[in-house]
Amino acid sequence: MLIGSTADSSMHIARSRIRQREMLHSSRLVSSGNRFAGISGQTEDLGGHRFSSGLQARLKTQNAAKITVQHALSFVQSQAEGLKSTSKLLSRMEELAYQSTDPVLDDFDRENLEFEFSALKESLSGLSGEEQYGAKLFDPLAARYEGRFPVVGVSDGGWEAQEQTVDIGAKRGKIHLWWNPTWQTDRMKVFHGSKMIFDSGEYRSNHWANFPDSANAQLNGEFDYFTLEFGSGIDNSTSDAANTGVSLHDKDIGTEFPSKTTQAELDWYSNNNLDYEKYKTNEDYPKTSGSPYGDTEIKFVVNESENIPGGFPNPRQAGSTTVWQYYAEIEKSNLTDSSVLMDSEGGTMELYAVGFSGLEHLSIKSSRLAASSLDALSEERGNIRYQMGVLAGEIAAFETRMDILGDKTQHERLALEKVSGVDLAYEMTKMAKNKILEEATSRAMLHSRLSAQHVFDLII
Questions:
Q1: What is the CATH number of domain 147-332?
Q2: Which of 182, 322, 370, 457 would bridge with 100, disulfide CB 3.0–4.6 Å?
Q3: Cα separation of 3 and 453, whole Å?
């Protein structure tokens, strides 16, 4: 039963309940140490939440940037240590090459030097394959002087298959191929690892303009040019528009071959039962295809053994001869440079690829080879000095960034602590005020009830 103004009493009770809820909320916030961890969240925020939340987000990003820079610094320092070891290996290899140029040495002496030289090359190969954080420390193609890898093939006149395999230390790149099988057809295939990326089919690049005058033969055409991409997973190979050769495997050989030669030559084939369409397929030749990223070996095969002997007009068989020549330049693509997060604003810094050649092709078995190896070793040592300069700049940049991030993070952490302290002080003051008001209201309500009870007793 309420005596007096029911509206006033109800208002006091409602306000009391509001204050009790606010005190409970403030108590939870104060006990958690976070003004915005209570049930009501960020109610009555005067801008502190937006400011402190922004600081917290920046601190998280800067901590991530700091960890990234630490990893990058460790990665670059490991690269520097690896290059120091490489420099020592190259220095010893250079000493061995100098010794091998001594004219008084015999084959046995040079074989002993070659044995140690080969062991050092294996050590170089092992260093080039080292990894950290799941990434390779070195890219063999990052050497400054490494541009194109030359490959030359020349027929020895025989009819048997000939092949040449090179390990270029690159898993992606482009081959510039010049192929000249002359008038008698020959077949060339190029492989990236086990994947065939080029097949010329039975190909002739020269045409006999005054057939059959062999004494004063007039041959038109020479090297045909092709570009072959490997390691990208797609076929972007091209054939030069100026090429004059034809492939007997091509689906359109019935029209292409007659257009390239003379009627006299065609009549001679017909009279001697020689069919230039015997190799015809339903595909375009020369045939190309892409290859996946992964292998580092490129293989060139000329006149690979087949069930049906190739060659036109003269089949390749025991006792026959053929003449051909090719030249290739392998253009190697570097591994992609990495970007490192440098600050909370998303700024990045490039982590450049560095590396060195494995020098697998070098040998000191003879004084001539040793002299050639000295030139390559001199270039490689110059490359190492250049790469060390690149790493020195990166190490300095990363160490400076570490200092900046450390100072910036410390200042922002102090600012966040001050904002949090002000927020908690505000909640403590608010809770104290509510307790004072709640206590005063409770006392007033108690006195009101006592007075009402006294009046009620007098009436009765």
A1: 2.60.120
A2: 370
A3: 9
Q: Which CATH class, in words, describes the domain spanning 46-139+336-460?
A: mainly alpha
Burial class (CB in 10 A: 0-12, 13-18, 19+), 317: exposed
Quick count: other Cβ atoms within 10 Å of Cβ 57? 11
The mean predicted confidence, pLDDT, of the chain is 78
Check if 46-139+336-460 and 147-332 are the same fold.
Answer: no
Does the predicted model carry a pTM greater than 0.70? no
Angle between helices 107-128 and 48-100 (to 10 degrees): 170
Quote the CA–CA distance of 83 and 386 in Å, as a whole number.
11
- Residue 406 tokens read as 């450390």
Quick: pLDDT tens for 220-246: 888 999 999 998 888 889 999 999 999
* 83, 87, 113, 339, 345 from 362: Cα distances, Å: 20, 17, 13, 35, 49
State both tokens at 261.
């030669």
The share of the chain scoring above pLDDT 90, in percent, equals 30
According to DSSP, the residues that pair with 178 across neighbouring strands are 225, 327
